[in-house]
């Protein structure tokens, strides 16, 4: 199982995302105070629909739920999927420690 925490400082929400490989899908569960993300709280993401931006299962679901284009949760879900599917090494993500966006002169 892979678990990540997303601190969305701009909107003020913290989201806990968990994923586990189940056959050809990644089962995603999300704890979130955001109503839009709550509607995505349980998904079975087909591995083969996570590679491209176009026709990407997670991005299509985020669009369906009217997520903001700057929402970090879809990206985090895709990272969980890549880790669970073995396309992103656990050792690499442990070494990196996380992803961030810093606003310098906003």
Task: Write a structural description.
The longest helix has 13 residues, at 73-85. It contains 4 helices and 4 strands; from the N terminus they run E-E-E-H-E-H-H-H. It starts with a strand and ends in a 10-residue tail after the last helix. The mean pLDDT is 94. It is 30% helix and 27% strand. It has helices at 35-38, 57-64, 73-85, 90-96; strands at residues 2-8, 13-22, 25-31, 42-46. The chain has 106 residues and is of the alpha+beta class. It is globular and about 40 Å long. It has a 4-stranded antiparallel beta sheet, covered by helices on one side. Pfam families: DUF6951.
Protein traits:
106 residues; alpha+beta; 4 strands; 27% strand
Beta content comes to 25-35%
Average pLDDT over all residues: 94
Shape: globular
Task: Assign a percent range to the helix content.
Answer: 25-40%
InterPro entries: DUF6951 (IPR054227)
In short:
With 106 residues, the chain is α+β, with helices and mostly antiparallel strands.
Topology:
Elements: E1 2-8, E2 13-22, E3 25-31, H1 35-38, E4 42-46, H2 57-64, H3 73-85, H4 90-96
Antiparallel strand pairs: 1-2, 2-3, 3-4
């Amino acid at each position: 199982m892979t678990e990540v925490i997303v601190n969305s400082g701009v909107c003020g929400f913290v989201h806990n995302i968990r994923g586990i490989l189940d056959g050809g899908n990644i089962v995603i569960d999300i704890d979130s105070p955001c109503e839009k993300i709550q509607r995505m709280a349980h998904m079975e993401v087909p591995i083969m629909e996570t590679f491209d931006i176009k026709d990407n299962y997670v991005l299509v679901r985020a669009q369906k739920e009217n997520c903001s284009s700057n929402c970090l949760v879809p990206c985090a879900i895709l990272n969980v999927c890549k880790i669970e599917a073995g396309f992103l090494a656990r050792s690499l993500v442990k070494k990196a420690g996380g992803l961030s966006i810093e606003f310098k002169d906003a």
